[in-house]
Amino acid sequence: MSFTNIPLEEKLGALEELRKVKEQFAARGWFPGTSGNLSIRVGEFSPESFHFAVTSSGKDKSVHTPEDFLFVDQQGRPCEVTSLKPSAETLIHAEIYRLTGCGAIFHVHTIYNNIISEGYGDKGAIPAQGIELIKGLGIWEENARIEIPVVPNYAEIPRIAELIPAALNPDIPGIVLRNHGIYAWGANAFEAKRHLESFEFIFEHIYRSLALRK
Fold first, then answer.
1. CATH code matching the domain that covers 3-213, chosen among 3.30.70.420, 3.40.50.1110, 3.40.225.10, 3.40.50.10090
2. pLDDT single digits (tens) 191-202
3. What pTM was estimated for this model as a whole?
4. 29 with 95: CB under 8 angstroms?
5. Which residues are recorded as binding Zn(2+) (predicted)?
6. How far apart are CA 48 and CA 24, in angstroms?
């Protein structure tokens, strides 16, 4: 399906969902500076052709403006004539969509995901076990143990995107850039939000548990 054939109602619905999520996350302080980015896929999907709405680059996410979002294709190129630039990390979103076929991806920078990812960065994954909010990731095994992938954070976004296929675990709906932030995804905005909130609870739990042992 070409971008022009996607129903206007679907496009407007995606923008409204992004606006609501942006407002909620901004209220939590999850977008320090102009960091972080959000996206929602629209229209039909194939790994070779898809479209998504994504946050514009360099915007203050604590306020709403008509220039907060734009639509891009599977290569991160704007679908319409615009002066807006997609978030610098749009290529990472595109790669995750291509590999998973998910419906939404949310990326935030927090103190806890930065510290924990730096602490476990050399291991390539953050281990977590027996934490209640692992269930929020759809993993209901008793005393479940998971490993959340961590990849290096390079200045060149294409270098990061190249690492995603090897690092991605289909059972874990998230991946962390070392000392940078997490990308969490889901079938839709509701699920991606649930996953992101669960990851952030897990990171804080790990941090506070380690602090108690000192």
1. 3.40.225.10
2. 999 999 999 999
3. 0.96
4. no
5. 107, 109
6. 32
